[in-house]
């Protein structure tokens, strides 16, 4: 007892330390198990002893049922449990393999019969596929599934398994339910890794360390905030009482893959690539087990690969096809590692420490989105983090008696990117006639974005209306810093009527061409703070379960001039409820309404109010036929910008209604309708003041000026692994509308009263040119998406054979005829010659297939000293089995309104040809 009391005091002290310095991580990564003990007539049985044992980690908890027969075990590590219930005069009850899942409630409610002698009933538990206490639309993709199916080895790909989520143009940042791809929240075991400046994902993760990926898209409760897209929570593996591990060698060779089909319609050159005959191998290993049986466990994972990609291709110029459409290869060096120590210090106190990092060098990125030659591409290295890596976290959870529980977490996360020219150091040129970039990269410099974060949350379990209820409240905090120093190569950029690559950099000028010489490139450091406070009440009223909550968000940001440029506080109400139609918790009708605020990205402080805004301050010169004549200067930044002290984050109001049904212990189906509309979207209105300074202060706009909406119907089927098979199937019918796909600078209202020259249109008011035909279907809209992922294991006397097909059918992405023109400040907006989304790529499909064979050479009883039998295996994956090569990327087709409008200008516009990957594996 003394040991437990001392341990509890130490844990409470640790929790206090966690809260003191800084605080994030909303919600919980742990699960709950509860229920009611009833007699055979359905009456409550108080005083029953309930014993809970972790099947993998050995720790135990116990409780006594209350006057209503209820018991509750909160904050449990996900995994299988054994539940034993005893009461004098009644038969005992034991449930095995009761699965507790992250952020879900597993219910065990036995009926005990009178027993004249000692009797026992043993049942097999089940996983909570339908949860009336949590009506959030969450797709859980477990390691059981992703280890079997053919899949890209990153959590961003796994995100797209959820209905309503799709990754347009393979950006790596999917769109969810009509939100921008910068509107998601990316959590690793509850720690926010979202890029603070861009709102996109900020860190990669070792795929072998992932236990499951939970993608929540609709009906999200008050525990989570600051996002209008998906909440993506990557849950990592932990050690157990047995030593377990794995080693995988994944290998592929471009020579084995199918050749690209077809030819470039502009140049006539075949899309066939130059294959490289080289085996590319990935080494991936994991190891986990006990430091102290039943108390402390470890887990680690490491992966390394030097990864040359198949040859990519820049876009093709119809005027200079011989100098464009160039082949290039990306060769990345990846080292992904993760380390985790979990300690169940007492049965009611859990402490976890975790470290991970993801240094990857050698990226090649077309940041222009329209590079014609390799000199316009950007090289990139990222996340070279010293010490304990890019992410360090410590978390604690504790249960105090039967009524109170608490959680705390502290984390430090850092991300950095170094960008440079990929091929040479020439100055970038934009060919205004074709909308193509030549000769120079988009970026040259670096960014770094460290963050300290933490949270504290507590729950009180009580009765309300005679039923069990939970009141939960929490606070979270983030301290942000964003550092940037980048420019264009040679600190300049040219905008020319036509660029002839044969003439070289200094012989391409016509009267009216523009040269922008950048000035004052220097380091800029901005800072920010985010506070979140939330409270919610979960309770039942007869057959109805309700979740009533609210969240207060406060965000402040300062520029590199230490001026406060963002200071806003908002309240988000969240209401949801479920009706237990069948009375057994397995048929639910649910509905919810919520308001979701999107945090104002740190780029506003970095770009708009910075004393040294990157790639902005410049002197503008115009070619007069013989010389460059000075025209005007562009000066922007915090020293010239009037600060909008009333700037608020945008918000979306979301309504959803669903019906869910659990079928047996392992299957569930659902149908859900979703409607979302955005308000108070942020934009700027660029103009020059009387002193010639560029003014671009962001402001909020009403929903009839800056518009965005989304509606969808989603059908899902889920089958947990049992009877040798598992499946995840969903279909989404949706439609998104908008006139802005920007976080704060859409160009809709810029330079009103100024004259811009648009090819084929002539002189036109700049603001009118930027706003013409803008409302319609955004680039990420897909009307139909069908996902099917399944696997079946054939168990034979010697081997297990698992077949796993994956099938996706989807509508093509929308696009429209367009062409760049030049604003007075030198930026390059786009004129739409037809309504946004007026054209669409064809619908297509992709079938992938995996076949895995495993066997245990020493049998099930051998080698038990390392946690179980050794399993050897081999897995073969075929991607794009039918070798479909339809056009799937609208950013790689000709968008200029001419005879070649809509044709692919690079092989990268098409589906990747059929490809193979093989894996040799050892598990124990």
List its salient traits.
61 strands; disordered N terminus; 2 domains; Immunoglobulin-like; 4% helix; 26-stranded antiparallel β-sheet; globular; mainly beta; 924 residues; Maltoporin, Chain A
Query: Uncertain spans, ≥5 residues at pLDDT below 50?
Result: 1-26
CATH topology of the largest domain: Maltoporin, Chain A
Mass-distribution shape? globular
Structurally, the number of domains stands at 2
- What Rg, in angstroms, do the CA atoms define? 29 Å
Number of strands: 61
Instruction: Specify the CATH class of the largest domain.
Output: Mainly Beta
Distance between the termini: 37 Å
CATH homologous superfamily of the largest domain?
A: TonB-dependent receptor, beta-barrel domain
Approximately how much helix is present in the residues? Answer: under 10%
Treating each run of at least 4 consecutive H or I residues as one helix, how many helices?
Answer: 5
Please give the largest β-sheet: 26 strands, antiparallel
Beta-strand share of residues: over 45%
Please name the CATH architecture of the largest domain.
Answer: Beta Barrel
Look at the structure and give the mean pLDDT: 91
């Amino acid at each position: 007892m003394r040991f437990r009391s001392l341990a509890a005091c130490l844990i409470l002290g640790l929790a206090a330390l966690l809260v003191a310095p800084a605080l994030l991580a909303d919600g919980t990564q742990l699960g709950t198990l509860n229920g009611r003990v009833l007699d055979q007539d359905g009456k409550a049985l108080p005083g029953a002893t309930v014993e809970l044992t972790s099947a993998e980690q050995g720790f135990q908890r116990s409780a006594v049922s209350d006057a209503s027969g209820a018991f509750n075990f909160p904050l449990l590590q996900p995994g299988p449990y054994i539940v034993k219930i005893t009461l004098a005069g009644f038969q005992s009850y034991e449930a095995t393999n009761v699965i507790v899942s992250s952020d879900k409630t597993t219910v065990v409610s036995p009926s005990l019969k009178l027993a004249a002698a000692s009797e026992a009933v043993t049942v097999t538990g089940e996983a909570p596929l339908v949860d009336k206490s949590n009506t959030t639309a969450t797709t859980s993709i477990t390691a059981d599934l992703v280890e079997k199916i053919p899949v890209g080895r990153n959590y961003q790909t796994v995100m797209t398994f959820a209905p309503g989520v799709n990754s347009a143009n393979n950006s790596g940042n999917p769109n969810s339910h009509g939100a921008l791809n910068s509107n998601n929240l990316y959590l690793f075991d509850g720690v926010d890794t979202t890029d603070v400046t861009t709102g996109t994902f900020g860190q990669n993760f070792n795929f072998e360390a992932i236990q499951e990926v939970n993608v929540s898209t609709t009906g999200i409760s008050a525990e989570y905030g600051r996002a209008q897209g998906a909440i993506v929570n990557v849950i990592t593996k932990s050690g157990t009482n047995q030593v377990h591990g794995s080693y995988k060698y994944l290998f592929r060779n471009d020579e084995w893959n199918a050749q690209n089909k077809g030819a470039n319609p502009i140049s006539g050159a075949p899309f066939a690539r130059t294959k490289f005959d080289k085996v590319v191998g990935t080494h991936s290993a994991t190891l986990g087990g006990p430091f102290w049986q039943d108390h402390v466990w470890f887990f680690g994972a490491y992966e390394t690969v030097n990864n040359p990609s198949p040859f990519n291709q820049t876009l093709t110029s119809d005027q200079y096809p011989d100098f464009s459409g160039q082949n290039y290869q990306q060769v990345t060096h990846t080292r992904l590692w993760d380390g985790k120590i979990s300690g169940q210090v007492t049965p009611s106190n859990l402490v976890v420490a975790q470290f991970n990092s993801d240094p990857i060098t050698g990226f090649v990125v077309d940041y222009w989105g329209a590079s014609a030659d390799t000199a316009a591409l950007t090289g990139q290295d990222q996340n070279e983090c010293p010490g304990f890596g890019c992410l360090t976290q410590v978390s604690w959870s504790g249960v105090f008696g039967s009524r109170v529980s608490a959680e705390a977490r502290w984390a430090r996360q850092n991300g950095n990117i170094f960008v440079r020219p990929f091929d040479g150091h020439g100055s970038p040129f934009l060919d205004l006639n074709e909308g193509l970039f030549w000769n120079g990269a988009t970026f040259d410099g670096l960014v770094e974005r460290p963050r300290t974060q933490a949270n504290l949350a507590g729950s009180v379990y009580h009765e309300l209306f005679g039923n069990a209820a939970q009141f939960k409240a929490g606070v979270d905090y983030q301290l942000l810093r964003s550092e940037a120093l980048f420019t264009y190569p040679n600190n300049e950029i040219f905008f020319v009527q036509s660029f002839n690559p044969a003439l070289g950099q200094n012989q391409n000028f016509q009267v009216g061409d523009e040269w922008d010489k950048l000035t004052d490139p220097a380091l800029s450091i901005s800072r920010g703070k985010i506070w979140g406070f939330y409270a919610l009440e979960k309770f039942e009223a007869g057959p109805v379960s309700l979740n009533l909550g609210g969240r207060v968000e406060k965000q402040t940001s300062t520029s590199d001039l230490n001026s406060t440029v963002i200071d806003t506080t908002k309240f988000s109400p969240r209401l949801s409820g479920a009706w237990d139609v069948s009375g057994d918790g397995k048929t639910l009708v649910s509905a919810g309404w919520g308001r979701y605020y999107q945090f104002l990205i740190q780029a506003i402080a970095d770009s708009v109010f910075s004393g040294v805004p990157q790639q902005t301050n410049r002197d503008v010169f115009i070619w007069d036929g013989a010389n460059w004549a000075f025209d005007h200067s562009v000066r922007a930044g915090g020293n010239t910008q009037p600060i909008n002290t009333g700037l608020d984050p945008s918000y979306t109001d979301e309504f959803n209604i669903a019906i869910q049904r659990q079928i047996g212990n392992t299957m569930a189906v659902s149908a859900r309708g979703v409607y979302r509309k955005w308000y108070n979207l942020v934009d700027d209105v660029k103009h020059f003041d009387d002193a010639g300074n560029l003014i671009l202060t962001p402001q909020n706009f009403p929903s009839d000026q800056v518009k965005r909406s989304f509606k969808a119907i989603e059908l899902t089927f889920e089958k947990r692994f049992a009877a040798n098979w598992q499946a995840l199937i969903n279909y989404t019918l949706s439609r998104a509308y908008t006139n802005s796909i920007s976080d704060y600078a859409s160009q809709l209202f810029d330079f009103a009263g100024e004259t811009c020259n648009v090819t084929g249109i002539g002189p036109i008011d700049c603001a009118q040119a930027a706003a013409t035909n803008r409302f319609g279907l955004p680039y990420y809209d897909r009307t139909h998406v069908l996902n099917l992922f399944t696997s079946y294991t054939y168990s034979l006397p010697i081997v297990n054979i698992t077949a796993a097909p994956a099938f996706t059918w989807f509508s093509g992405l929308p696009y429209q005829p367009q062409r760049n023109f030049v604003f007075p400040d030198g930026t390059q907006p786009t004129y739409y010659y037809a309504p946004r989304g007026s054209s669409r790529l064809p619908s297509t499909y992709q079938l992938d297939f995996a076949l895995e064979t495993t066997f245990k050479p020493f049998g099930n009883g051998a080698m038990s000293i390392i946690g179980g039998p050794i399993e050897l295996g081999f897995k073969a994956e075929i991607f794009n089995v039918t070798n479909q090569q339809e056009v799937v990327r609208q950013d790689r087709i000709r968008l200029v309104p001419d005879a070649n409008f809509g044709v692919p200008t690079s092989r990268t516009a098409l589906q990747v040809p059929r490809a193979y990957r093989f894996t040799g594996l050892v598990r124990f």
